[in-house]
Amino acid sequence: MFKTRVTEILGIEYPIIAGGMMPLSTAEFAAAVSNAGGLGIIISANFTTASGLREEIRKAKSLTDKPIGVNINLFLREGAPWPNEEFIEVVIEEGIEAVETSGIRSPAEYIPRLREGNVKVMHKVTTVRHALSAEQAGADIVGIIGSEQGGAVGMDEVTTMVIIPAAVNALKVPVVAGGGIGDARGFVAALALGAEGVIIGTRFMATKECPVHPKFKEWMLRARENDTVILERSIRMTHRALKNRTADKVLEMEARGASLEELLPLIGGESTRKLFLEGELDAGIAHCGQIVGLINEIPTVKELIEGIVIEAKAIGKRLDSLGI
Ligand SMILES: Cc1cc2nc3c(=O)[nH]c(=O)nc-3n(C[C@H](O)[C@H](O)[C@H](O)COP(=O)(O)O)c2cc1C
Q1: Considering 167, 223, 260, 312, which has the largest number of Cβ atoms within 10 A of its Cβ?
Q2: pLDDT of residue 221
Q3: pLDDT (tens digit per residue) in 83-99
Q4: What is the mean pLDDT of the chain?
Q5: How do beta strands 68-73 and 98-102 pair?
Q6: Could you give the CA distance from residue 259 to residue 278 in angstroms, rounded to a whole number?
Q7: Ligand 1 contact, 21 CB (< 6 A)
Q8: 168 lines ligand 1 (CB under 6 A)
Q9: What percent of the chain shows pLDDT beyond 70?
C-alpha cells in the first residue's frame, strides 16, 4: 500500500514526511511522526554544537526504531552559526537514515560524504532549476514546495498545482510535494500530479505532539485560508506567515525601503521562538501556510497520518467510481 520510490528509498510505511520546522522539530515530535509510519525530522540548526545534535538524535532513537531524518540548513551563504560539516559526521555516526537539506546553497558539497555514510539525501527547493541542480549533485529525492507553504516561499511564488508537475516532468529522481497539503485530498492530489510522497509542515503544527504553544494552536483553529501574507520580499527572503502586528510592521517597513539590519530584530529567530514557544502571538513572524484555513481540530500525529491514509483510499474508490 502506498509503495513508491520514496517509501522504498527512505524505508518508511507511508510517503508522508514532516518537513523540518525550526524551532519545533524536536526529538519527541520527530519520533511521533516516524512511529506513525511517516518520516520525522530533527532540525540540526536548533543546535550550535555537534554534541547538542548528537544528544537530540539519541533521544529520538530511544523513542523509535523507525527511520528518522535530520535537516541541514543551507539558508545562509556564509557565517552560519552552526557547524554543518560536524553535524554531518554526527548524522553518519549515529546511523541517521536520511537528511533533508534546504536553503539557497546547493547541497553538492555535502552529498558525497553523506552517500559514503549511507545516508539518503532529500534536497528541498522551490524552483525546477534548483531541483535539477540537486538531482545533478546526486540527491536521492527532491522535495518541491509550492507557494502555499508556511516556510521560505521562494521569489517566484509558483503554486503547488503547477510546480509539482513541472518538476516531475524535468526530473528522473522521485519528487516529494509540499505546500498546502494537510489532508487526504491534498495527499491524493499530490500523487496525481506525479509526486511520490508529500512534505507536510503547517498541518503537523496543529497536532497534540507538536511543541508549538497551545495559544498558537488555538489561533490556527480560528484562522482562515486568507489570513496569511508573504513577507520579506524586499530582502529576497520571502516567508509566508499569519497576519499579526509584527507582519503589519514588517510590511510597512519594507514599503519604505527598510534595510536587513532594520528588519532583523522583527524577523530574527529570537522573536520567532518567543511567539512559537511562549505563545506571545504578536512577538514575531508567525510562519504558517494557507492550509491553516482547513484545520478544524488538533489530532495526535498518529490520528492525522492514519486519517489521511484511510480517507485517501476512500477518495481512490470515489475516483474509480467516476471511471478515472
Ligand atoms: C513554522 C514553520 C517553520 C519552518 N521551518 C523550516 C526550516 O527551518 N527549514 C526548512 O527547510 N523548512 C522549514 N519550514 C518548511 C517546512 O519544512 C515545509 O517544507 C513546509 O511547511 C510545507 O508546506 P506547508 O506548510 O504548506 O505544509 C517551516 C515551516 C513552518 C510552517
Answers
A1: 167
A2: 98
A3: 999 999 999 999 999 99
A4: 96
A5: parallel
A6: 28
A7: yes
A8: no
A9: 99
- Among candidates 123, 116, 36, 38, which has minimal Cα distance to 74? 123
| 57 close to 94: Cβ distance less than 8 angstroms | yes
H/E run at residue 199: strand 198-200
Judge if the beta carbon of residue 201 lies within 6 A of ligand 1: yes
Residue 79: per-residue pLDDT:
65
pTM to 2 decimals? 0.97
What is the Cα–Cα distance from 232 to 209, expressed in whole angstroms?
Answer: 30
DSSP string covering 254-307:
HHTT--HHHHHHHHSHHHHHHHHHH--TTSS-EE--GGGGG------HHHHHHH
146 lines ligand 1 (CB under 6 A): no
Residue 17, ligand 1, Cβ within 6 A: no
Cell 509558483, located at residue: 158
CB of 20 closer than 6 A to ligand 1?
A: yes
Separation between Cα atoms, residue 67 and residue 10, nearest integer Å: 7
Cα of 324 from ligand 1 centre, angstroms? 33
User: Tell me: the pLDDT tens digits for 264-274?
Assistant: 999 988 999 99
Res. 75 pLDDT band, cuts 50 70 90:
confident
502555499: which residue's cell?
148
Instruction: Mark out the alpha helices in the chain (DSSP H runs).
Output: 5-10, 27-35, 50-63, 84-93, 111-116, 128-137, 160-170, 184-192, 202-205, 214-222, 245-255, 260-267, 269-278, 301-321
Atom 15, ligand 1: which residue's CA is nearest?
151
Average pLDDT for 281-307: 98
Nearest atom, ligand 1, residue 146 CA: 23
119: left (phi over 0), alpha (psi -120 to 50) or beta: beta
Alpha carbons 275 and 278: distance in angstroms, whole number = 6
